[in-house]
Automatic annotation (TrEMBL):
Residues 308-414 form the Wax synthase domain. This is Wax synthase domain-containing protein. Residues 123-158 are annotated as: Disordered. InterPro entries: Wax_synthase, Wax_synthase_dom. It comes from Patellaria atrata CBS 101060.
Amino acid sequence: MSYVTAEQRVQNDYLSALQAGNFTPPSFPLSSLNIILLIGWLMVCQSVSESSFQRGRWIVFIAIAFSSIWNLLFVRAPGVTGSIGTGLNSVLCTVMAVNFLLLHDPRSFKRLILRPQQRMNSTNGQINQKQLADGNEAKEHIRSKQAGKRYHNMQNRPGLEWEPMPRETLRRLAWVFDLITCFRGVHWSWKSPPPSSHPLLLSNVSLGQTTTLFRNLSRFLIGYIVLDAVKSLMIADLYFTHYPIRTPPPHIARYIASPLGLYTYRMLLATLGGYSAIDLEYSTTVLLQVNILGPNILGLNASPATFPPIWGSPHAILRKGLRGFWGDTWHQMLRMHFVSIGDAIAQGLLRNVHVNSNSRQDKVKETDRHNQSSAEAAIRVVVVFLLSGVLHACGSYTLLGSSRPSVSFLFFALQPFGMAIQSTCSYLFCSSQLFFSLGRYQLHVRQISNFFFTILWLWAFAGLFADDLTSGGMWMFEPVPVSFFRGLGFSEDRRFWCW
C-alpha cells in the first residue's frame, strides 16, 4: 500500500465514523468550553469576593473537567494533529485547572515584564528618589560620578519588574493568555508574594533580534531538514504508515536482517522523529517571537532569556542514569505543572505521618527529615510520570486508528520502577568490595554502567510506546509544509507541498 493510499484510508475511516455517529467533529464554542471557562475564571476571579472565589473555583473546575471528559469521549478532529490535540488539550486544561483553581491562588501570581524606560537629569547628573530606590541604578550613578561622566539617558538599559494581575481588561487578558501558554513559567512566580524588585538588567533584550538571528535561523533550518529526512525514511517503511509489521522495508532488507536489528532501527528513527519534531516546534517559536515579532510587540516574551535550552546535557545520563535522562536531558516542557501537583500529593500523603510523630512527642531527627524528604521526592517522581502517562494515553486514545492507550501509559508508569532498580543496583555495587578494588576507575565504571542501563532500559520498553503510536496512525502526521526530499524524488511520495 502506498503512502497516499494510507492517508486516504485514514480519511475514509474518519468520515465513516462520523456517519455512524461514533463521535462528533469539533465545534466552537462547545469543544473549546474547557479553555474558555479557564480563561473566563482567571479574568473575573480578581473581581469577586473571597467567599464567591472559594465556592466558584470548585464549580468552574468541575465544569472544566466535565468539558474535557466530554471532548475526550465524543469529539474527534480530522487529521493527526487535530485528533491527538483533542486528547492532549483535554488533559492539559484539566492539569492547569488543578494548579490555577485548586492548588494556587492566581490572584497572587506575578510575572516579570520590561520596566518602563527611565531617564536621568542631563544637567546635574542627579537621579530622583524613585531611581535611588533601585540599588542597581544608584550604584551606576555613583560609579559615573566618580568617573566624571554624565548620564544623559538610560533608554538602552531595560530592567525588570514584577507585574501582578492587572485591573485593566485588555492588559489582564494578555496577562492571562501569557500565564496559560507559558508552560515552563520562566518569567512567572507562583509564590506569594514575589520580590518587590528584580536586580537583573537585561541589556541583551534590545540586541536579541540581531545577535540571535543567525543562531535561531540556522537551528530552525537544520531541524527542518532533519525532520523532512526522517519523515521521508518513515514513508518508505510500512511500520510507520499505520501497519506495525515485523518485516524490514526493501531499502534496508539487505543491511538489517535480524528482528533485533530491525527493532533497533525503528526505535532510533521514531526517537529521532519525536526529538526533531519537538525541537523544530520550539525553534520555530523562538524564531517567531524573538527575531520576527521582537520585544517591541511582545516585551519580555521576545527576550532570549525567556527561552532557555529545551534539552539538557547528555552528560546527565552518565552522572544519574535513567533519572538524569528524564530529569535533565529530555525536554521539561510541562515539568512545572506536573511537579506542582506531585508536591501537593506528596505533602498530603505525608502530612498524617508528620502529625502522628508530633502526637507521640518524638524528637524529629535529621535522619527522619531526610527520610521524609526522600519519600516526598519519590512520590513526586511517581506522580509526574503517572500524569505524563495519562497525557500521552489520552493523546493516543483520540487518535483515529486502533490505538492501545494503556500501553502508552504503561511505558511512562514503568520509568520510576526503572529508576528504583538502577538506584538499588548502584547502591549494592558501590557497597561491594569489587567497587573499592577499582581504585581510580570507580567513576568511569559508574558512568559506563549508568549509560548502558539507561540505553538498554529505554530500548527494551520504547517499543510499547512506538507500537501504540503506529497503531493509532501518529506517524502519518505531516510535520513540514514543503518537503525537499520528497519533491526531489528521494521518496515514493513525490510531493513538494504536503499540507
